[in-house]
């Protein structure tokens, strides 16, 4: 039996018990496609959080190919744990942003190279739909005026039209195969159900599905199945508060069962130039608790049913991303496949108990360190030590 602090399992470096030397976990990639009409501020926001240099010129279609950037999801708990353990490194959970070029009316039919842009959306886990909620005569609006409701409707309609086109082709194929394959009969019923909804401008994600339908949904590459965060982009004078534009976006999000957030791309650009200490002070001055990146990341975690567990040690303190409801062996497998295969048990302590009792030793002395088995459902913020045998 080997006792392993998960934080010691580092990619391509430290040796692991059992003779394995390479990190081989089930890394959970969280990718968010940043979409919106041209000149709504999405590329400015993307530049600020990733420093990837995506074009932000003041004209449509300046961003033709998707720009990708992986950024850390800031978690203050890691700083606390690292200080307690004198950790050499801090590794945050990450989120990949994909900046997808501005969509316009007719994108689903190829306007503005729309088909290419729409195909990139299929690859992401969720969508951050940036909506312009500010007036600025110096920044041209693609439709001549700022109208959040109309802007949202344009992009949503293009996604719906693209899905109708996708389904039409799939239904044609499934109809032929359903004559000899019962599985295709079930799939055909589901696709027609979604098709009818789309024709009424209802996104696929807004329908109710039973368990068997949920399984079949995995085979459908539909854009409107993606979870959405509507992000109202305001000017620096309206950060942290609503205006008439943001109220419209919030209402649309609530009615659709989607998430809503307010950010200022301009302020995000300023924050990106600051040190950690300066950023904290600037956020205090603005009266907002976190950056736009943090807001969107947390919203996406909620939408996708994700959570984090933590590991802490001298070499590193780290956050790991798992799904809500994952069992302890599954969480161990995110770190390394051997941890899941040979899982014996997990020593678990909650973050508050760990901090209040000065670490693992203190928590154990107070009886707050729990020994959990294969059926343990992981909780947000669990600090874990896995024991396994290979």
If you had to describe this structure to a student in words, what would you say it looks like?
- It is a single chain.
- With 390 residues, the chain is an alpha/beta fold.
- Among the domains are: 2-27 and 307-388, Roll (Ubiquitin-like (UB roll)), CATH 3.10.20.30; 31-63 and 100-146 and 224-303, P-loop containing nucleotide triphosphate hydrolases (Rossmann fold, 3-Layer(aba) Sandwich), CATH 3.40.50.
- The protein has 14 helices and 13 strands.
- The strands form 3 sheets. Strands 3-5-2-6-7-8 form a 6-stranded mixed sheet, sandwiched between helices.
- The longest helix has 30 residues, at 148-177.
- The chain is flat, with a radius of gyration of 23 Å.
- The relative contact order is 0.16.
- Mean pLDDT is 83; it is low at 4-23.
Short description:
This protein has helices spanning 42-50, 76-85, 114-121, 148-177, 182-198, 211-217, 244-256, 265-271, 276-286, 292-303, 328-335, 337-341, 351-356, 360-365; strands spanning 2-4, 31-35, 67-72, 89-91, 94-99, 126-132, 227-233, 259-263, 306-312, 316-323, 343-350, 370-372, 382-388. It is of the alpha/beta class.
């Amino acid at each position: 039996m080997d006792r392993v602090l998960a934080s010691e399992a580092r990619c391509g470096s430290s040796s692991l018990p059992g003779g394995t030397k390479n990190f081989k976990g089930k890394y959970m990639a969280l990718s968010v496609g940043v979409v919106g009409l041209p000149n709504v501020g999405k590329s400015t926001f993307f530049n600020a959080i990733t420093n990837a240099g995506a074009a932000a010129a003041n004209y449509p279609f300046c961003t033709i190919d998707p720009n990708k950037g992986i950024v850390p999801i800031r978690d203050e708990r890691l700083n606390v744990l690292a200080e307690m353990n004198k950790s050499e490194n801090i590794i945050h959970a990450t989120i990949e942003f994909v900046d997808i070029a501005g969509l316009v009316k007719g994108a689903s039919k190829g306007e503005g190279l729309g088909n290419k842009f729409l195909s990139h959306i299929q690859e992401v886990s969720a969508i951050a739909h940036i909506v312009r909620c500010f007036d600025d005569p110096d920044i041209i609006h693609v439709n001549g005026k700022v109208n959040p409701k109309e802007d949202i409707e344009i992009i949503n309609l293009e996604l719906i039209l693209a899905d109708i086109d996708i389904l039409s082709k799939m239904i044609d194929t499934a109809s032929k195969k359903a004559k000899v394959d019962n599985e295709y009969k079930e799939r055909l019923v589901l696709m027609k159900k979604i098709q009818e909804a789309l024709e009424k401008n209802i996104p696929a994600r807004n329908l109710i599905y039973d368990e068997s339908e949920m399984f079949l949904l995995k085979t459908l590459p539909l854009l409107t199945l993606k979870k959405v965060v509507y992000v109202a982009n305001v000017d620096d004078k309206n950060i942290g508060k609503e205006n008439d534009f943001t109220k419209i976006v919030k209402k649309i999000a609530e009615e659709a069962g989607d998430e809503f957030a307010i950010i200022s791309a301009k302020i995000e650009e300023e924050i990106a130039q600051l040190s950690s200490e300066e950023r904290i002070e600037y956020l205090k001055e603005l009266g907002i608790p976190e950056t736009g990146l943090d807001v969107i990341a947390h919203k996406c975690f909620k939408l996708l049913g994700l959570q984090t567990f933590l590991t802490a040690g001298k070499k590193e303190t780290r956050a790991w991303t798992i799904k809500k409801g994952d069992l302890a062996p599954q969480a161990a497998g995110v770190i390394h496949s051997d941890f899941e295969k040979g899982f014996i048990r997990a020593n678990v302590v909650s973050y508050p108990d760990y901090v209040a009792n000065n670490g693992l030793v203190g928590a154990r002395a107070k009886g707050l360190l729990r020994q959990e088995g294969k059926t343990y459902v992981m909780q947000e913020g669990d600090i874990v030590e896995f024991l396994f045998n290979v």
